[in-house]
Amino acid sequence: MSIRMIKQTATIVALVLSCSMTMAQTPAPSPKKPAPQVRVSQRPSAPQVVTIVHRLNGLKMFRMLLRSEQQVQAVTSLESGFNLMDDVHTNVIAGLAMDDGETIAAWLPEANLEFAPPGFPASFGESQFPDFKFRLSDPPDVSVIGPDGKQLPAKYVGFDATTGLSILLLDEKSSLPANAVRDEPVGVGENVLLFGPEPVANTHSLLDNNLYVRIASIEGRIQNVLPAPTGEVARLRVSAPRLSQANIGGVALNEAGETVGIVDGLLGSEATVLPTASIRRAAQRVLKRRSSVPRAWLGVRGEAVAALQLSQFLNHGWAAERAVTLAGDHRGILLTSIAPGSPAAQAALRAGDVILKVDDKEIQNADDFTWYLDQAGAATSVRFTVARPNQIDVEALNVKLSGILDPAAGFGFRNSFPLTKGLSLLEHGAETIALRPVVASQLGTTAGLLVVYVEPATPAATAGLQAGDVIQLIDSKPIAALNRTTSLKLPMTLQVMRKKQKLTVTLSPPAKK
Amino acid sequence: MNTLTTIDELAFAPGLQQETLEDTTSDHALLEATRSGDQDAFAELVSRYRNQITSYIYRMTSDYDGAVDLAQETFVRVYRARDRYQRSYAFSTYIYRIATNLAISELRKRKRRKLVSLTGFFQANDGGEAKELNPPDGRPLQDSELVDAERRNAVQRAIGTLPEKYRAPLILRDVDGRSYDEIAVILETSEGTVKSRISRARGFLREKMRAYL
Amino acid sequence: MKDKRCEPVRRELEELMLNEDFSSATGEHLKTCSDCRDFQRQQTRLRQIVGSLGTVTAPADFDFRLRARLAADSEAPGFRFWSVTVKGLATAAVLVVFGVGAVVVWQRTHEETPAVAVTPPQVTDPIRGHESSFSLDNPELTHVTTQTVAENASSPRKIHRSPIANRSKRPVSTIDFSSERASVVSNTRPVNNSAVFPIETSLQSVRVSLDDGRGKARTISFPTVSFGSQRVLMTANHFTPKGAW
Questions:
Q1: Cβ neighbours for A297, distance < 8 A, ≥ 6 positions apart
Q2: Which of A146, A490, B102, C43 lies in the 20 to 30 Å Cα band around A129?
């Protein structure tokens, strides 16, 4: 043992002794904190609630930046010691162990960082279904921790775009007692508890690098049961006094300990809860496909007629009397924009059209429309009954819906598409962010474009481009020399730095079918 | 669950404002213990003061992220100087003095930056505004709350326009409710100066907040 | 109508706390002087608004970011001991502290730690690579999941390369805090027999400065941890934009 070790050991022992002496002297740290002891007569138990830890590395955080509302073009500085592949952020959220003992369903808010960015051409047409497997470019770093604190090895199976749930499978069937799932309809006024992980403040947190977590619950009450047009329960609304964003993803249990649903959003002072039937269906979809399941996508923006002012109709070319009739019926969705190349565009739907029915079912509001499209599913055909401004009669239109994994991707977060302007390789499958020289040298390279995501089955992927690569030259021109108006056409040769090695990657146009 | 804060969420839980209950003997004892190597004690000190200090610096600079950074710097300095710390005044006074100096340096730095670069770091205003309007739980505000939040927003903005030397006394007095002598020790000046600066500060604010008064 | 008597009155009003009563002389003056009444009203109102500015809270990762700073701080030599090299020792020290406190009950983890030692814990110094034994005559300590301590120490944090495979095998030591020692200002009910478990999080939060392509710079810092759907950035973080299909 070296002198240094002896010294350190001695210091530790001294420290420990002084710690214990300090503890003997000073009163327990809590007394002056304003927390009264919560006397709880019966503590609830929730064996089906697990903790999910979703870790994101530097690359994924850059994706988050690029996909956020921030206008981001380049990284100008980074804290020293930042490493692209290291974990930068951890999201801790609840998960539901389903009654088969091996499936876990969880609402991971950052799951979308694991797949395609917004602005990406949603090109999943019929030829790619039903066999198309949405491969995640790299497996998400997701851990499952059981209610007893034990880590349960699990694999991420896929993302269900309809519900937003992520489905995982435990490697081994767990001994988690399968708590009954409540399948009968829940009633308004029923009390529920929303369970999820919370941090435990630890006065010793300076002594180690861990965050201490436990499962806890908040009380709530069912305010509303929202029916789907088909009669089943679409959503529950639960009011809970101390609701916060931290509760999203929480598992809702009734007083008997039966699962009622998963919290998937906050609306006003209420939580919206996905009912167990929806969770089951989502799990079935994903497990059947063994990969992520897209959501039906049409490619339109619109608003329910019932919510519109007359002027909005007139703006889209409707004559006043017809507009009044339409508005009076309170039916349908007025389309306000159509995504280029989308199923809607291909079916020749136009802004100003009003979709009145889906497969002969009337649409009263936006939620109905969503429900019917979801029911139809991705890559299926539906028949719309459409009223058009310049036609007297309504028209029946068959539309082949396509699929989308991240619904925001079809439109981006802003009300316009295409999303990204400027130098972008997005259309070829690579999401990039520019690195200024200072940052680049911190990351061991020279200035260029850092690739943060590569979509499978695109020219970028086929050429072998990888997330983490730094592109320095495009067609032998340095990145800095290219300006925004340079159009990037294939074929393209990229000079790339990967793990301190120079490589050449050639992007070729996709083979025509 | 706990109302945690992230970058753009605040918990205005009234309970938190009571954190200054610890009597100074106890804080001193913790710092003494830290001096002898007890990092447990230092951790306790940090947990007692981190919200207050972050909040104070935020009120001074209107920049939350920057305030967190400077709050940590405050604790780093306390730690570094633990051997030199004298018991002559209350620990809270001591730590607030460090925090005040850091906040004022930051404000001066910003002033110089503004003169040099044409591009603003819009975090400074953006970060501040959004905070007052976004309630901790992300839910949309009720009308009355909206008005309150708007008002708080406006006053925070107004404070941001005060010359530096008026901000600290105003915040320490009207936000934190400290006594004049304590403020005088924190700011290393006389009580008379403190009083007159507060008066001037309020005068400025009265003008800016005319619409709300 | 401002006269000489207004000055001392206003000074008094300025200096009093809002909940304090003013003197009878001031009270008399206010009855007659409308300017001073206005002043008092506005002053009170303003101070109420300023007073309504609440305390903002520090972010959840404040403590461990601070810790990282202290560990990296060359002028804070004390903290060098608590750097990653002796994390294992630190953990052991924590265990002893708890042992002395005799408040907490340790639970063993199961299959992952087959060799729960009855001998003093072996702690590996990850950077140096050699072992130092650290024996204490504390009976509690001998039942500690030493394997955990060793494994934790052996995943060096400085070299953040944590492949997924490794992490899934790392045992998680469990502490039962049902004695409320670590409880928080909480409106929640902890679950029956709720285990408190540690989650390893990244050491340092990251600050990034960005350019929006139009000459404006912005600094964003990522917190190391978020719960539920707490917003990490100011973004819309829902999956379905409203009114889009």
A1: A122, A342, A343, A378, A401, A402, A403, A404, A407, A410, C245
A2: A490
- Does residue B3 belong to any structural domain of this protein? no
Strands A430-435 and A74-78: parallel
Give the Cα separation of A440 and A465 in Å (integer): 18
What is A90-292's CATH number, 2.40.50.140, 3.90.420.10, 2.40.10.120, 3.60.20.10?
2.40.10.120
Counted residue by residue, chain C has a size of 245
- A502 by Cβ neighbours in 10 Å (0-12 / 13-18 / 19+) ranks as exposed
Of B43, B51, B72, the CB nearest to C55: B51
| Unique residue bearing structure tokens 């939580």 | A271
More confident residue, A165 or B26: A165
pLDDT band at A412 (very low <50, low <70, confident <90, very high): very low
Structure tokens at A175: 């001994």
C116 touches chain A (CB under 8 A): no
| Residue A455 pLDDT class (50, 70, 90 cuts) | confident
B40·A243 Cβ contact <8 A = no
Chosen from A42, A169, A211 to mutate, greatest number of chain C CBs within 10 A: A211
Q: Is it the case that residue A353 has pLDDT exceeding 70?
A: yes
Please state the domain extents for chain C: 6-51, 77-176
Among C residues 20-59, those touching chain A with beta carbons less than 8 Å apart: none
Quick check: A407 and A375 in contact, CB under 8 A?
Answer: no
Instruction: Tell me the nearest-neighbour CA distance from B88 into chain C, angstroms.
Output: 23
**B192 in contact with C, Cβ within 8 Å:** no
The pLDDT of residue B6 is 31
C35 touches chain B (CB under 8 A): no
pTM: 0.57
CA nearest neighbour of C233 among C198, C193, C206: C206
Scanning the structure block, which residue is given the tokens 């190597």?
B37
**DSSP letters spanning B122-145:** THHHHHHHHHHHS-TT-PPPPHHH
- CATH fit for domain A295-404, picks 2.30.42.10, 3.20.20.70, 2.60.15.10, 2.70.98.10: 2.30.42.10
Written as one string, the DSSP assignment of A86-99 is: SEEEEEEEEEEE-T
Contact A349, A386 (CB under 8 A): yes
Task: Identify all chain B residues contacting C221, using CB atoms and an 8 Å cutoff.
Answer: 7, 65, 68
Number of residues that make up chain B? 213
Give tens-digit pLDDT for A80-101: 666 777 777 888 999 999 888 8
Q: How far apart are CA A185 and CA A165, in angstroms?
A: 21
- Residue A512 has a pLDDT of 56
Q: Is residue B197 pLDDT above 90, yes or no?
A: yes
Which residue type is seen at A340?
P
Domain boundaries, chain A: 90-292, 295-404, 426-507
What is the value of ipTM here, to two decimals? Answer: 0.75
The H-or-E segment that residue C88 falls in is helix C87-101
Is residue C227 within 8 Å of A52, Cβ to Cβ?
no
**CATH number attached to the domain at A426-507:** 2.30.42.10
**Rg of chain B (C-alpha set):** 18
C172 and C109 in contact (C-beta within 8 Å)? Answer: yes
The percent of residues in chain A predicted with pLDDT above 70, rounded, is 76
Cβ C225 vs Cβ C60: under 8 Å: yes
